[in-house]
Design brief:
single chain, alpha+beta, 12-stranded antiparallel β-sheet, 7 helices, disordered N terminus
């Protein structure tokens, strides 16, 4: 049976409206009582949009309320019971990509901003971008006057053969501060025992390499400090790393690390395929102290044939798994 274009459009519209109605009644939680240990998820809206290029965009708005029983006691000041986290998310199937966008917004309780470290922070800005297997990002923290640490900036960049991290800050000394920030002399003594001590920096290098399963070989970990006057210090720290051993990239180095743990070889193509699913990604996080508002936004662009690629990835994994099982059952 063939339907005219107007009939097909009417049928599609009725189907989508029915789905929206069913979703809004079944997902919102109005028809059931959830246990108090489960966060309440209310889906305020669900929308389907047909774009001019005939691509379909699926969007949703949600509100999550956390009950007291799921919140650790040490973070109840940040997430008190009954506070809501608002988020929006959408998927769009386009001609050359699948695009996911999401925004999450949360207003911190007033009492949380009165406690350190947030009581000293006027704004936080974090941005990150990735294209293929290369990326970069930065974190900037602005503080109110008369605090121990100001002008905090962290930057990083990476690709398959190199990772770089840099950090800088200005420290302020005062007898009213305890520990190493009580005076320039106290800070110089601590600096001499750490960043000016090659034994200490080598130990930190070793700890980083152990934490990354020796995927990364740390080539540089050092710090510099200048003292413009008797009350401040400008500090910068640099870290550089490359693939460890004879590996030509971090993926190969990771596979070598797995092999050292007894995991059979053959995962490199699977890891490469998984990484190739994402074409690009951007992420931003902003915190504004005057409004106590935290906003997280992200956009991820996947390959256009995402479903097919994911199925191929699953087939690769199961073929490898079956081959390993077959070889392990082979008689000696």
């Amino acid at each position: 049976m063939k339907l005219a274009n107007s009939e097909r459009a009417r049928l599609l519209t009725l189907s989508l409206l029915s789905l929206v109605v069913l979703s809004s009644t079944s997902i919102s939680g109005n028809g059931a009582t959830l246990p108090s240990t489960i966060p309440t998820l209310q889906r305020n809206s669900l929308a389907f949009t047909v774009q001019p290029d005939r691509s379909v965009r699926v969007g949703s708005n949600t509100t999550t309320t956390l009950p007291a029983s799921t919140i650790p006691k040490n973070v109840t000041s940040l997430f008190p019971p009954g506070y809501a986290i608002h988020s929006t998310s959408s998927f769009s199937q386009q001609a050359n990509a699948v695009v996911q966008t999401s925004t999450t917004q949360y207003q911190l309780p007033t009492q949380a901003t009165y406690q350190p470290p947030l009581s000293s922070v006027s704004s936080i800005t974090f941005t990150a971008t990735q294209t293929g297997l290369s990326g970069q990002g930065s974190l900037a923290i602005d503080t109110y006057p008369n605090v121990p640490v100001t002008n905090v900036l962290v930057t990083y960049s990476y690709d398959v053969t190199h990772v770089h991290v840099g950090a800088s800050a200005q420290l302020h000394f005062s007898p009213s501060y305890s520990g190493i920030l009580s005076s320039e002399t106290a800070f110089q003594s601590e600096w001499a025992a750490t960043f000016a001590n090659i034994t200490w920096t080598d130990m930190i290098k070793s700890q980083i390499q152990n934490a990354t399963l020796h995927t990364i070989s740390v080539t540089t970990f050092s710090g510099t400090v200048t003292y413009p006057d008797g009350f401040t210090a400008n500090v910068s720290i640099v870290l550089d790393g490359v693939p460890s051993g004879a590996a030509t990239d971090f993926v190969a180095a990771f596979e070598q690390a797995l092999a050292s743990m007894g995991v059979p070889p053959g995962f490199n193509p699977i890891i490469q395929s998984a990484l190739a699913l994402t074409k690009s990604e951007s992420l931003s996080l902003t915190y504004t102290g005057s409004t106590r508002t935290l906003i997280l936004q992200s956009t991820t662009t996947y390959v256009p044939d995402l479903d097919s690629q994911v199925n191929n990835l699953k087939n690769q994994f199961f073929q490898l798994l079956l081959s390993l099982c077959h070889s392990s059952n082979r008689p000696p």
